[in-house]
Amino acid sequence: MLHISAAAVDDLMTWPELVDALDSAFRNGMIQPVRHHHPVERPEGSPSMLLLMPAWSDFHKLEHQSQGYMGVKIVTVSPDNGLIDKPAVMGVYLLLDGITGEPKALIDGQSLTRWRTAAASALAARYLAREDASRLVIMGAGAVSSNLVRAHSSVRPITDIALCVRNPKRAEATLKELRDEGYNAYIAEDHIAAIQQADIVAAGTLATEPLIHGKHLRPGTHVDLVGAFTPDMRESDDEAVLRSRVFVDTKDGALKEGGDITQPLRDGIIKPDHVLGDLFDLARGTVKGRVSDQDITLFKSVGAAMEDLAAGIMVYEKSLKQQG
Asked: How many Å apart are CA 145 and CA 95, to the nearest integer?
């Protein structure tokens, strides 16, 4: 069994390849049960969340069954980790042979998650963001933020990147990293003005109150919501959802877990059919994403196990080729 470290994941992945791999996975299909999530309460501090995310190849659609895999990601999300300078998300991915169940690889879950999360956003932007989108606003500067910059820049001609953060000092490392890679990134002094001028607004936070308000979105904006993965969390307000053509990564997940969708559904602000489709629909062309350059589009993801499986297969097979 291969052990694939975070550094190896970073070395093996490329954004164009991964976005294409996810596109193929959603277009051709994989099997994924609804993920298991269990809150872990403690006497002090915020509760952690334990997530189990299994998926496997759809063997009925494979030309050769030997091409199939199974896999499961075990993840913890601990919101208080930032207080001790540790990532909020921890995890590992176990990739298995699809026929025998033999373990094939144990892959660093944090790095795999960062890559596939941002790649799913880039895949959505490929269908939903204007082709000339150049101004990107990122809400937050956590572990996923820099990858959101890289991923969106791989599918759209991004030339201007504003980071909207509560604590600029904590964003200095992310800012330096992006600038060293050649990105025109800076800290936005006025968050509202940055959003008003954005072509794409992406948020990957643990917010429980809206950061993105519909009244500030100009026509043509694409909103990418990556954080707020429970019903009690959200990054956008009701008006942002109402004004947008709304898509999700998977309906089974986002309509049950993502507060940006579940809260306006619960309150009767929107009906289920306000969510026009998911990545399956976009990849297969069964629903039109962006209809005009004036559309405001919104993509909400909560994470899908098949994204991890597609990314894990890609890393494993590239690692085998690299070894020989």
From this structure: 26
